[in-house]
Write a structure and sequence with these properties.
Mean pLDDT: 91
Helix content: under 10%
Structural class: mainly beta
Number of helices: 3
Radius of gyration: 23 Å
Distance between the termini: 37 Å
Shape: elongated
Number of strands: 31
Strand content: 35-45%
């Protein structure tokens, strides 16, 4: 069993951007973000593009925006910078003022009535207790979440699910109202209980997982009579993607039916009207800033053919690699920072002559050679790939890109420190 606890408010702090330095072709070294023709700030919700519309959210219209989500089909809640959950439409990139949330699809949310534990699918497992859908939810909406109150010791609420043997991950948002007694969760009907810690005055997302569970019975237990907690967005998934027991920051509000979740995937595609894809077909430079709950295996840029920027698992892990065709540049191990409380900054460039270089968090990669420009590149994704296997499990905060840009080593270090 793996147990993770992550208070929302403490993890999502508004990032502070340092100045970007660099050169635009043969222009003066101005040392500002103006060197990039494209600059998409997901946190501020602003963007700069050379022509056409800027970055737009809330739908998937092919209107010339730089990045579009081609496959978001699930209405989802994600946190803003203060930790309040914000409803996202069933189309368009999932973005709040914390940035764009990039997690893979966790598959089907298996439980019903994720926000309403007064429904008949939730039954008493003993101990005595009451449930009332009278609490302000993690999204700030009145009477959206459920208050559980124990009228006896070990008051328990359970829901049974029919499912073949699998690894089960349960996540829910909890807030303590009264008392100090223990709060537990189970996925096997109480054979095994795991202690969790509700937020004090605010909701905290708690996560637990257990392998080889057949027909899970998920539940919550209050150990002490008189204690009360607010519960919201109880989501249960089987066989989490990539075998990573990492929470999903996408919350789903199930009612009478299960819901298949989906990832939100920023993509620059040749089939769209946007022009940023053409920059990646030639010599270019980029800057990316974001946060990740994944130690290795994340892809910052995933091209259809030879353009990639990824976090490697070789050696000690955590090296950042940028490639265009056979040419590569790679940092030393352990430069990648894991956790939503930590910012990563990555920048790199590739030239028409085959030179390629990357830097991450102030650490330079080697001076690579032999890069070939992907003139037929038809799309690239940001922070993931089409299937979601390479998701950063985190937040895209900022992405900038420009044609025919190069930087000195000092500029790359300054940009990413």
């Amino acid at each position: 069993m793996t147990l993770l606890r992550s208070p929302i408010r403490s993890q999502l702090r508004s990032p502070v951007y340092g100045p970007l330095t660099g050169a635009y072709g043969s222009a003066p070294l101005t040392g500002t973000i103006a060197d990039f023709a494209y600059d998409i700030d997901f946190v501020a919700g602003t963007s700069k593009v050379p022509s056409g519309p800027g970055q737009v959210y809330g739908n998937n219209t092919n209107d010339g925006r730089p990045l579009r989500d081609p496959n978001n089909v699930t209405a989802t809640y994600i946190p803003n910078a203060s930790g309040t959950l914000v409803l996202q439409a069933s189309a368009g990139l999932r973005r709040t003022n914390a940035g764009h949330y990039q997690y893979p699809s966790y598959g089907t949310c298996r439980n019903l009535w994720a926000r309403d534990l007064t429904n008949v699918v939730w039954v008493s497992g003993g101990g005595g207790g009451t449930s009332a859908k009278t609490s302000t939810g993690a999204d700030g909406v009145a009477n959206a979440a459920t208050r559980l109150t124990a009228s006896g010791a070990n008051a328990t609420w359970l829901q049974s699910i029919t499912l073949a043997s699998s690894t089960v991950l349960i996540q829910l948002d909890l807030r303590r109202i009264t008392g100090t007694g223990g709060v537990d969760v189970t996925v096997d009907g109480g054979t095994t209980w795991f202690s969790v810690t509700p937020g004090s005055g605010v909701y905290s997302q708690v996560v637990a997982s257990q392998a080889a569970v057949t027909n899970p019975v998920v539940g919550i237990r209050l150990q002490t009579s008189g204690d009360a907690v607010d519960v919201d967005f109880v989501n249960i998934y089987s066989n989490p993607p990539n075998s990573l027991l990492v929470r999903n920051q996408y919350r789903i509000a199930t009612t009478s039916a299960t819901i298949l979740g989906s990832q939100s995937r920023p993509s620059a595609d040749i089939a769209d009207a946007g022009t940023m894809i053409f920059v990646a077909q030639g010599a270019f430079a980029f800057y990316w800033q974001g946060r990740s709950e994944r130690a290795t295996g994340a892809f910052i840029i995933t091209g259809a053919t030879g353009v990639f920027c990824s976090v490697l698992a070789t050696g000690a892990g955590g090296a950042v690699k940028f490639s265009d065709g056979p040419g590569t540049s790679q940092t030393a191990d352990s430069v990648w920072r894991t956790g939503l409380s930590q910012v990563n900054k990555v920048a790199g460039y590739v030239t028409a002559g085959g030179a390629i270089k990357v830097a991450a968090n102030g650490v330079l990669g080697n001076a690579g050679t032999g890069a070939t420009l992907e003139t037929a590149l038809d799309h690239f994704d940001l922070g993931t790939n089409g299937a979601g296997a390479n998701s950063i499990y985190g937040i895209n905060e900022r992405f900038a890109m420009g044609a025919n840009l190069t930087f000195t080593d000092a500029q790359l270090q300054a940009m990413t420190t």
